[in-house]
Specification:
Chain lengths: 354, 255
């Protein structure tokens, strides 16, 4: 328990450390000693955070990634940043049903919650088509419906930028900006999206207690009455696996089978984490549910007999009463982590606190 | 396979030529690899798809979408009938090739004739939060409100759908075993005696999925609810059925 608190504090201190005290993350003079290693503490009970050997976490790498994440320079017409579709106050999801990219082009899936995304290796995207954050980053940059950027142009823009060459020098000891380094910096920043300070976590540590409704919701969530834990279990609240939960009798998005080519994967999507789920509306891969109540109600009465319906989901739902849905919603509220959602280190680098 | 069997035959011949007084004498430790394969009454197990469907003892047609379990505390029997227990556990996901072999190193040298193990984790191992926090182990956690504060993990997840003339839409049956309902696998004789002596002995273990549904208890899916984590006696019945689900198909010796 104590170790957990320490780990949490360390993570906060470290994250605050990357914030440069809330002021500009400006061009640092290149240090002769090279970038400063950043030790990210893994919250108690979490799996070890997978960090590729060729992209160690550094203070300067995270600071650079942070700046890139919020900078529209990444898109073809310099109008869209990663954060346009992954909003920090929405746990890096998008409040729009499907995201709008360059020139308001519509994508076809909802931008997911990126809470604890560092643990999603090797299954990034709703269909798991990227195997690491490093592999994932280039997708939105060149996607026609998202940032519609040309890497050559982007690299030239960054290279000719007043601040970026020095930031790359600080992070990677070279002023030669490459796709590989842009990707690595963004991946480093994304690995700091760590959330483990929700009320649920405090209850686990004995520092808080559930209300009656939350306790009933916990009980439903973690028993076969609700079945939720099998796919959204503690501590990540996702099993990082793919399922068809019966949203449609004949799904029109192939999902996982686009990647594996297996008919038995047709219509399966990755279970999203339910940490901070109260702020990530709308819900499901296509954003079909505007409210969390509708999303939970699906499990109560909604599932249809789709060809690859998961055996853990029953056609017609678990028959949860309205009271039980309310209780589940009360429990899901306890997964909201204000310290994460308001963490200044996960907001745009600002000048004079702006 | 054939080469391995030939090798065993050759070794056996050589061995017969020697004066074998105590099989454990003068031998060096070796490696034993358990490799896991799956069948349904002799047909290889396919996954997730009604084109791989099987018929159980009760006559139900079914197919499998998930088969994940732990193996623990392997015991090898030497030719004197003595037990050599190798403490440890291993996670198997029948669909994930990287989990289909379990390597035991430093196994005492000697002549072995049989193997057994638990499917699942016994009282000593099945403790809350006792296993490394890998995604696999976390996904096997037994939830606290169902006894997970005492018993840490599922022993097994075997998830099937079946065809039933009365219940529409191919209902599921989820055989999730937990609590003290691990399987004490019967003693599995090797097809022939094999010697560990600074070498590797690979045991090809096959699980016949149909054994879960017969002897001593013929199992009718539709007689039971689709989820049974809250039904320990029913879990026990399945665990008893599975005691004879495994066979050692082959023993292969390598240098």
């Amino acid at each position: 328990m104590i170790r957990f608190v320490l780990a949490g504090l360390t993570a906060m201190v470290l994250l605050a450390g990357c914030d440069g005290g809330g002021s500009t993350v400006g061009p640092d003079p290149p240090e002769p000693t090279g970038p400063t290693p950043l030790e990210l503490a893994t919250p108690a009970g979490f799996p070890p955070l997978p960090i590729p050997a060729d992209n160690p976490m550094t203070v300067e790498g995270v600071a650079l990634g942070r700046r890139l994440f919020f900078d529209p320079i990444l898109s073809g017409d310099n109008s869209i940043a990663c954060a346009s579709c992954h909003r920090p106050n929405a746990a890096f999801s998008d409040p729009r049903r499907v995201s709008l990219g360059v020139a308001d082009r519509e994508g076809f899936r909802n931008a997911p919650n990126l809470t604890n995304i560092g643990w999603a290796n090797p299954r990034l995207f709703w269909d798991g088509r990227a195997e690491s954050l490093e592999e994932q980053v280039p997708h939105p940059v060149v996607d026609f419906d998202e940032m519609d950027q040309d890497w050559g142009e982007l690299l030239a823009e960054l290279q000719n930028h007043a601040a970026y060459p020095a930031l790359f020098e600080a992070a990677f000891e070279t002023t030669q900006i490459t796709q590989d380094l842009v990707t690595k910096a963004l991946a480093q920043f994304e690995r700091t999206f760590i959330s483990a300070e929700a009320k649920f976590d405090r209850v686990q540590r004995g520092e808080a207690t559930f209300t009656d409704a939350e306790a009933r919701g916990f009980e439903l969530f973690f028993t076969e009455r609700g079945e939720c834990f099998h796919c959204h279990g503690n501590p990540l609240f996702t099993d990082n696996d793919f399922h068809d939960i019966g949203l449609d009798a004949a799904p029109d998005d192939a999902g996982r089978s686009d990647v594996t080519g297996k008919r038995s994967d047709y219509g399966k999507f990755k279970s999203p984490t339910l940490r901070n789920v109260t702020v990530t509306a709308p819900y499901m891969h296509d954003g079909r549910f505007a409210t969390l109540r509708e999303a939970v109600q699906h499990y109560a009465t909604g599932p249809r007999p789709s060809p690859n319906l998961d055996p853990l989901i029953l056609v017609g739902g678990f028959g949860l009463s309205e009271q039980e849905v309310d209780d589940l919603l009360a429990f899901l509220e306890t997964l909201t982590d204000p310290a994460f959602l308001n963490n200044p280190a996960l907001r745009p680098p600002t000048v004079n606190g702006q | 396979m054939r080469r391995g069997i030939f090798l065993i035959a050759a070794l056996a011949l050589l061995w017969a030529g020697c004066d074998s007084s105590d099989p454990i004498d003068n031998t060096s430790p070796g490696t034993v690899v358990l490799s896991f394969s799956f069948e349904v009454d002799g047909e290889p197990l396919g996954f997730d798809d009604s084109s791989f469907s099987y018929v159980n003892a009760a006559g139900d047609t079914y197919w499998v979408s998930t088969l994940r379990y732990y193996i623990s505390d392997v015991v090898l029997y030497d030719s004197d009938g003595d037990r050599h227990e190798i403490d440890g556990f291993h996670y198997v996901d029948a669909e994930d090739a990287s989990t289909l072999s379990y390597t035991l190193s430093d196994v005492p040298g000697g002549e072995y004739t049989a193997v057994t193990f638990f499917l699942g984790l016994d009282e000593e191992k099945n403790l809350p939060n006792s296993l490394p926090t890998t995604t696999e182990n976390l996904n096997m956690a037994w939830p606290i409100p169902m006894g997970g504060d005492v018993w840490g993990y599922h022993h097994l997840k075997l998830e099937v759908n079946y065809i039933n003339p009365v219940i529409p839409a191919e209902p599921p049956f989820n055989a999730h075993l937990g609590l003290d309902n691990y399987v004490t696998v019967r003693k599995l004789p090797f097809p022939e005696t094999a010697r560990v002596d600074a070498n590797t002995m690979e045991l090809t273990l096959s699980m016949n999925v149909n054994e879960w549904w017969k002897t001593p208890n013929t199992f009718v899916f539709a007689d039971h609810p689709p989820m049974i984590m809250g039904m320990p006696p029913l879990q026990r019945l399945l665990a008893d059925n599975a005691a004879d689900a495994f066979t050692v198909k082959a023993v292969t010796l390598r240098d």
